[in-house]
Specification:
Rossmann fold; alpha/beta
Length: about 250
């Protein structure tokens, strides 16, 4: 029926339907005219020069991000506080740097923070990650009397760094150092987020940060190493979450 109708229209209005070589196209053309099914719109498109300028600008921004994101995520800006805080497990070379920093900075206390080990854990004899780090630092020459281990008994599934900061705050209040300024030691690109979350908790005192440089990849060319790429991407996302989305419930 549609073909017959289109044929009749073509016979009656040959000039209107010239160039529409099939009955289906002619019928669609008529329906479009009757019911305004389609429209023609003008739009701007980039010229070759425009594409060149856009590519240069995009490339410049991308190169800038690549070059500056790692230093941004791994800052070292200590305030010379009385307390030095070490988060989580660190490799031996990193703990050596912590020990040197503690002695050179003339800190009063060194706080180690980490999760409590469960029964059957290979390092369960140390009770917690914090106690293990304390033992290792003591072996490097730091007096046990200057180390306060803070074990996280209930380890949360999310926002762990924030809850570590709360645990440190509680322990320092108990020890009589509630108003002491602190420097937080963190590993690599985790430092910026750590600094941000500790500032949220210790809002009334000065908080500094010290990033320990990892040795398993070249931080100046992190994009050439799988570990560098994974660390930077994951911490960039985590930092944006902490900066713009995270809202502490405590």
């Amino acid at each position: 029926m549609g073909k017959v109708f289109a044929h009749i229209l073509n016979c009656c209005y040959p000039s209107t339907f010239s160039g529409l070589d099939t009955p289906q196209k002619r019928l669609f053309y008529l329906m479009d005219k009757l019911f305004h099914l389609t429209t023609i719109q003008k739009r701007r498109v980039l010229t070759p020069v425009g594409w060149a300028v856009f590519s240069i600008a995009f490339g410049s921004v991308l190169v800038s991000i690549i070059l500056f994101v790692h230093p941004f995520l791994a800052p070292t800006k200590p305030v010379g506080g009385g307390i030095l805080v070490v988060l989580g497990w660190l490799p031996d070379y990193a703990l050596k740097k912590v020990k040197d920093r503690f002695e050179e900075g003339h800190y009063k206390l060194l706080v180690t923070v980490g999760r409590k080990y469960t029964t059957g854990h290979p390092m369960a004899q140390y009770k917690s990650e914090a106690d293990w780090n304390a033992s290792r630092l003591n072996a490097q020459g730091v007096l046990l009397g200057k180390i306060i281990p803070v074990a996280i008994t209930i380890y949360p599934r999310k926002d762990r760094t924030y809850y570590k900061a709360l645990a440190v705050q509680k322990r320092l209040k108990k020890a009589g150092f509630a108003q002491a300024s602190i420097d937080v030691v963190s590993f690599g690109v985790h430092a910026r987020r750590t600094w941000l979350l500790f500032e949220k908790v210790f809002s009334s005192v000065a908080v500094g940060v010290i990033a320990i440089r990892p040795e398993n990849y070249d931080t100046s060319r992190w994009w050439l190493f799988s570990e560098g790429v994974r660390s930077v991407i994951s911490e960039s996302v985590a930092y944006l979450y902490a900066r713009f989305i995270f809202s502490p419930s405590i």
